[in-house]
Design goal:
It is a single chain. This protein is mainly α. The protein folds into 5 domains: 1-34; 38-105, no CATH class; 115-222, no CATH class; 277-336, no CATH class; 387-538, Glycosyltransferase. The chain is 52% helix and 7% strand. It has helices at 2-37, 41-45, 47-53, 63-66, 74-84, 89-99, 116-127, 158-170, 174-191, 211-222, 225-241, 280-293, 299-312, 342-362, 366-385, 414-417, 423-437, 461-473, 477-498, 526-536; strands at 69-70, 100-101, 128-129, 146-147, 251-253, 256-258, 264-266, 339-340, 387-388, 393-394, 397-398, 403-404, 438-439, 442-443, 458-459, 505-506. It has a 3-stranded antiparallel beta sheet. It has a 3-stranded antiparallel beta sheet with strand order 8-11-12. α7 runs antiparallel to α20 (526-536), α9 crosses α10 (211-222) and α9 runs parallel beside α11 (225-241). The radius of gyration is 25 Å and the shape is globular.
């Protein structure tokens, strides 16, 4: 009887241990499956990815396929594709339609003749996405609801979201602002930074670091305890941008540039040097032209520069290009990674200041003083390298040539927005805005006509807002008011004709639409809505 009891106990123990082992194995398997599914599309779909993205007859927009949602597990999908081996375009299209949910080009939202402010308020629900429950193709699941820009932009975008939040604040959507901030903090915690957007193909780059401005916005609404809540996330984001700054000597490493006199500034970068999956065909063609024109360049260098420009949010602009003997800019001359940008370094100055403020509130520690000193050092470097006294404007700096680029752009207003400029500098920038940038519909992004979307004749809501607020910071209210009124009037006129809010606008010829770039002008549109609500409700 005693022996039986021992055996019985042994059997029970074995069954319990086996059950626990199975549970662990199942949990590990789930984790492994999740990790396997969080992959860029070229890894998810293998040969099928290249077959589709290299074929310009299947989808007019390269982003369509990489946003498609597979109906079956990627492993099974790859197996099925290898077994069938479709050859003609019709066969490939049939395979895709059977095995993927292909995103639609247009929205189901029906416009009406509501006032523009009411229209935007209604649009928040149309542009809102619920918390994601699972991986859907290339979409990275987020734990809270969020606002997407609209059109082909079906995911959250980093720097867009700050300007969207300005409108959400005006419309009392404070919970949505908090949800979006929490999503960004979650991305930082899980990936070490905020990607361009919540897609797996964006996991090698970020976007202009507006997270600290978002924290400041929520702190204005809910109080300074917000700084403590998001301090770990802000610190981790700062560490991402400054990775490599501890290296001794001069040179560039990832997003950090250490200048000959020891100053540290930053550049845009991307951790990959391959064609962007969402613009695959376009990048391959650009790299081919670049290498043909300059055999000393490699395709990898060109891809990196294209990707770095995407991290800037200004994809693409004369800011990143060289001017040829005919006075033209060509995309194949892109050299983004050689450039220290005004906007990025102004944003990082703000992040350093915000970290100092957050550490100061947390406790009287040395860290607050450390970040104040970092901010002041960056401010001095911005003034030394990015300000050009002769022309009276802030320019990006080419650290390879040890000179400013000389390309006028609205990135030059960022030092006014963040109050880095001296009073006399602000006066000169104001003159430049009025003489070089001001058009009937607002401020043009750059005065150069290149065919790129971040150049003339186009204008964008975030740059209007940054310019207006920057001017106000230095008492230049008259020009700020003029820009505001021209921009709002343009938005209203286009809305009355189309009942749409657009991604960008033509501010030179108000009878024409904006254009240029890799895709048609999108409607929706998150940051245009946000800036309009903010400015029109003042």
């Amino acid at each position: 009887m005693k022996k039986l009891s021992v055996n019985f106990l042994f059997l029970c123990s074995f069954l319990i241990l086996n059950a626990c082992s199975s549970a662990v194995t199942t949990e590990e398997k789930k984790t492994e499956e999740k990790q396997l599914s969080i992959l860029p599309p070229e890894d998810l779909y293998g040969e099928l990815f290249y077959r589709v993205q290299e074929n310009d007859s299947l989808f007019s927009d390269s982003k369509t396929f990489v946003d498609a949602v597979p109906r079956i597990a990627p492993e099974e999908l790859r197996k099925r594709y290898s077994e069938i081996q479709p050859e003609t375009n019709a066969e490939i299209k049939a395979f895709l339609n059977k095995n993927f949910i292909i995103p639609e080009a247009s929205s189901d939202y029906e416009t009406d003749s509501s006032s523009i402010n009411l229209h935007i308020k209604k649009l928040w629900e149309e542009l809102k996405r619920p918390a994601d429950e699972q991986v859907s193709g290339t979409l990275i699941p987020l734990p809270n609801p969020y606002i997407v820009p609209g059109g082909r932009f079906r995911e959250i975008y980093y720097w867009d979201s700050y300007f969207t939040m300005l409108g959400l604040q005006e419309d009392g959507e404070i919970k949505t602002i908090k949800h979006m901030l929490d999503n960004f903090a979650w991305l930082i915690e899980n990936y070490g930074f905020i990607p361009n957007g919540n897609r797996t193909y964006y996991l090698s780059r970020s976007q202009p670091p507006f997270f600290a401005k978002m924290v400041q916005l929520l702190a204005q609404i809910q109080g300074e305890e917000v700084y403590a809540e998001y301090l770990p996330a802000m610190q981790k984001e700062y560490d991402f941008w400054m990775s490599g700054s501890e290296n001794a000597g001069s040179g560039a490493y990832k997003r950090v540039v250490i200048l000959p006199d020891g100053e540290i500034l930053n550049r845009y970068w991307d951790d990959k040097n391959t064609p962007r999956p969402e613009s695959y065909r376009e990048d391959v063609k650009t790299a081919e032209k670049a290498v043909a024109k300059n055999p000393e360049r490699t395709r990898g260098e060109v891809y990196r520069d294209l990707r770095a420009a995407a991290e800037s949010g200004w994809d693409f602009s004369s800011r990143w290009l060289s001017i040829n003997g005919n006075g033209d800019f060509n995309l194949y001359s892109i050299h983004t990674t050689q450039i220290i940008p005004v906007d990025l370094n102004s944003l990082l100055y703000n992040l350093e200041h915000t970290l100092a403020r957050a550490y100061e509130l947390e406790a009287p520690t040395d860290k607050a003083e450390i970040y104040r000193r970092k901010a002041e050092n960056r401010k001095a470097a911005i003034q030394k390298y990015l300000w050009e006294e002769e022309t009276g404007f802030y320019f990006d700096y080419n650290f390879k040539n040890a000179n400013t680029t000389g390309i006028y752009s609205l990135a030059g207003v960022y030092p006014l927005f963040f109050e880095i400029s001296k009073v006399e500098q602000a006066r000169k920038v104001t003159e430049a805005l009025e003489q070089i940038f001001l058009r009937p519909g607002g401020l043009v992004s750059t005065p150069h006509h290149t065919g790129q979307q971040w150049d003339a004749p186009n204008a964008w809501a975030p740059l209007q807002y940054m310019s207006i607020e920057g001017l106000r910071n230095y008492g230049k209210d008259q020009l700020a008011s003029e820009i505001k009124q021209r921009w709002l009037n343009l938005n209203q006129n286009v809305y009355q004709k189309t009942f749409k809010m657009l991604e960008k606008y033509n501010v030179e010829d108000l009878s024409k639409e904006s254009g240029g770039g890799e895709y048609p002008t999108q409607d929706g549109f998150g940051w245009t809505n946000g800036v309009y609500q903010k400015l029109s409700k003042e």
